[in-house]
Design goal:
InterPro entries: AAA+_ATPase, ABC_transporter-like_ATP-bd, ABC_transporter-like_CS, P-loop_NTPase. This is ATP-binding cassette domain-containing protein. The chain has 259 residues and is of the alpha/beta class. Helices cover 35% and strands 24% of the residues. The strands form two sheets. Strands 6-7-8-3-9-10 form a six-stranded mixed sheet. Strands 2-1-4-5 form a four-stranded antiparallel sheet, covered by helices on one side. Strand 1 and strand 2 form a beta hairpin. The structure holds adenosine-5'-triphosphate. The site of adenosine-5'-triphosphate has 11 residues, from strand 2 and helix 1.
Length: 259
Amino acid sequence: MSASTTPKIRLRGLSKAFGAKQVLDGVDLDIQAGHGMVILGGSGSGKSVTIKSILGLIQPDAGIIEIDGRNVLAMNRREREELNDRIGMLFQNAALFDSLPVWENVCFKPLAQKRMTRAQARDKAAEVLAQVGLAGSVGDLYPGELSGGMQKRVGLARAIAGNPEIIFFDEPTTGLDPIMGAVIDGLIVDCVKRLGATAVSITHDMASARRIGDTAAMIHKGRIVWTGPAATLGETGNAMVDQFARGEREGPITMELRK
Ligand SMILES: Nc1ncnc2c1ncn2[C@@H]1O[C@H](COP(=O)(O)OP(=O)(O)OP(=O)(O)O)[C@@H](O)[C@H]1O
């Protein structure tokens, strides 16, 4: 395989069970460099487990995870940490530290790794906050003083602060009103484009999926059952994907499977 066709992220046969429950049952997925991939699937279908496996937070039972063609499951701790420095993550509900001001949240990682002085971190935080449309003065506020939309922006600022090559977004618009959701999606697209990053998102919000995804993949019963252009969601011709995207009760995905 030539370098130009090596996917940024390549999953093969990824499997993970928790007790008797087989959550991932052979996930195969290629995510090309610079692309936006949206992972869809019902609640509990294993979307977060997939992302956590790529991040090294969950050890899969079997399968291959490659980033830039390198087997990440075989990496030692130092290699894994170096890799994680090239990855950003926007957690669900932004996951900010309530006891720290915004600027320390944004530069949490470089401060913890002592790669920046506090003065440098303040300047860097102001620079990145501006990229997500927030005034530098927001840096001195605490997360509890921010609206949900502002918290998401701060989470996004933290995710991009290290100029990552890969960014994961876990339900970036959940809990936001539709307009703020669209604003956050716009910022995500802008930031990802500016960085030239590969973006992997989980979302239940189809409007958001179409905005932030180039490609969508649907996970069902522990496997990827469809991949295709995110713009076609709802009209893909795949009955399962279209039922999911349109939120229809009737279709191949039965209530029995959704318990
Ligand atoms: N650390 C864990 N220990 C035990 N079970 C787990 C663990 N992590 C996830 N699971 C189980 O794996 C299944 C898939 O979870 P996951 O969080 O990946 O779902 P999801 O597709 O992201 O769902 P949602 O859309 O509801 O967030 C669930 O049944 C969950 O309970």
